[in-house]
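Recap from last week: sequence in, structure out.
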Amino acid sequence: MKKTGAPDRAEMRAEYDFSKGVRGKHYAAYRAGHTTRVRRADGTASVQHFTPEDGAVMLDPDVKASYPDSESVNRALRALISENR
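Predicted structure tokens:
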């Protein structure tokens, strides 16, 4: 039997229950560092451990939209610092 019409995206399926979810549960562990397995098309894989650089700052998505790189963030912060001196 062929399904007709597009599924209703406004409602979440019953099997997707996030009522007991915890926002940011793994945030601290991720910031401490994480290990990633990278699989290549030729079938080989490598394991890489990533840690944030000393002094690294995480930007929220709305801030990152306005300040997409380190140069723009530093320029804005320096302007704010000079206004408050």
